[in-house]
Amino acid sequence: MSIKTSGLHHVTAIGGNPQRNVDFYLRTLGLRLVKTTVNFDDPGTYHLYYGDQSGKPGSLITFFPWSDAPAGRLGTGQATTTAFSVPETSLGWWQQHLKAQGVETSQIRNADNEETLAFRDPDGLQLALVAHPQGDPRDPWDTKLVPAENAIRGLHSVTLSVSKEDATAGMFTDGLGLSFHSQEGNRFRFEAGEGGPGALVDVLVTPETPRGLVATGTVHHVAWRAPDEPTQAAWREELVDKGVNVTSILDRQYFRSIYFREPGGTLLEVATDAPGFTYDEPLLELGRALKLPPWLEPRRDEIEHMLPKLNLPSENNPEQK
């Protein structure tokens, strides 16, 4: 593989009630809503992007919140845990903070000597906060509810559940340019570039587990970073040459994307770093207004009528009077 990803770009999941989703990720987890737009394939549904101040690649979790969608089922063929990176000394604070919000947690330590706090969001999505011993230099979004000294730095890793590891491992090493890092029992860790928070994927092998069902409370896809469009185009050709069924390059306004499935069944994406979320609104105003791509703008009145109104907590734009 001549082209290699530098790490995770974003994780996209399916949520339920959009207001509940906003309240949890802004107020409970302290992320910033950096873009309020719609699912381009289903514009009657929001697409909400949460991340750091500017929504840098590697900080992002995004949602399609369908209020009437059925509950999903965790299992093989999907990403089953999304982990965020937090300061090493912050897990006690997070445990108390989440408890005060009515969120149950469990604490573990993994083979990399990382302390982890596991919990679920209101729709049942499996999440974790990981305190990496070597720290994480990324700047957080700072709010009164979740101050910078404890705040999420960005994505740490994702866990994929599969019935067998060989073909999935081959996709990560030969298709995405990751390298094998370590094994702990039936969990195999791979890393992009120099590794560390934001560049990790764990492959959990559970052949006895039934196939998962992607719906509310589950991950829809996992996106990996490409630095620019020429690299992405060349990458696509390499994947096609390997016999991978890859989509055409799609315009997502804030990045360009290609999609394909790894052999275990999880939908993967390769997304460009640019142009980013300040493409259509200033940094200080990110997430406040509904943004539509040019081809949907003529339908704005219809789309706004279909979408439930969102009330954004003041934490999203604390400088706003």
If strands are numbered along the chain, what order do they take across the biggest sheet?
Answer: 2-3-4-1-13-16-15-14
Low confidence ranges: none
Question: Strand-and-helix sequence, N→C?
Answer: EHEEEEHEEEEHEEEEHEEEH
Mean pLDDT rating: 94
Largest sheet: 8 strands, mixed
Number of helices: 5
Number of strands: 16
Work out the count of structural domains.
Answer: 1
Identify the CATH class. Alpha Beta
Distance between the termini: 51 Å
| Classification by helices and strands | alpha+beta
CATH superfamily: 2,3-Dihydroxybiphenyl 1,2-Dioxygenase, domain 1
Helix content: 10-25%
Silhouette: globular
Organism: Amycolatopsis carbonis
Keywords: Dioxygenase, Oxidoreductase
GO molecular function, one term: dioxygenase activity
Pfam families: Glyoxalase
